[in-house]
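Progress report, Aim 2. The chain analyzed during this reporting quarter is listed below.
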Amino acid sequence: MRVQTEYRMKDGNRIPSVGLGTWSLKGAECRRVVKMALKLGYRHIDTAEMYGNEADIGAAMKDFDRSKIFVTSKVRGENLRYDDVIEACNRSLDALGTGYLDLYLIHWPVEEVPLEETLKAFRKLLDEGKIKSAGVSNFDKNLLETALKMADFPITVNQVEFHPYKYRKNLLDFCKDSDVVVTAYSPLGVGKLLQDKVINEVAARYNMTAAQVCLRWSLQKGVVVIPKASSEAHLKENLDIFSWSLSEQDMKKLDSLTKSKNTRKRRK
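Predicted structure tokens for the chain:
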């Protein structure tokens, strides 16, 4: 099965299907990893206001062609009021040293702020060219459906935890029907999947690693993956998922691993 290196979003813009997640990367380590990833060919960097590393990512990107890098950031839940969204986006742009974000997401929904108010701020940012595409993160099916009906602009992406232990088929099917791209954060289950016996058995048959099998599984579902890695070997490994494919039988075997529990205890 052939998978795409990028997906066309409903607003016409394109998002690379593999990116670098930067949650918990900070300081010199963040700058080193992002720069190395860009040198290796990564063209999609995912960050967020709450990660506290946007300035480090901006410093790492300054020697590269910005027009060839897809940058995602997210506004934190405490800043979802209209004026706060605008100010937060401006801070992110300043920190990243860029005039626009390729994708801006509501990081976590909060009940205290009307969704309509946040979406109006996103509309203004789109109109001003400060963000090229808009989306959400950690939205379940019901809330995403509400957002799609309420927004007067395309909701292009829903970024959620997604991996073989957390195969969210109903949400994925709804997103596909609604032309919303799913981006998988923690696509390796914060490392827990790498020890799974079934995944390692499948990996051995393809002469690949458990990480590559997990990422390829998501890609064959039509999902964007943003694994975090800090070594050159792992960064390269996470890119080597396009020249081979999992059989339908092995895909179903990985589908059956899904569990009700989350692998992450902290908010991402």
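Residues 77 and 145 are 19 Å apart (CA to CA). The radius of gyration is 18 Å. These observations will guide the mutagenesis work planned for the next reporting period.
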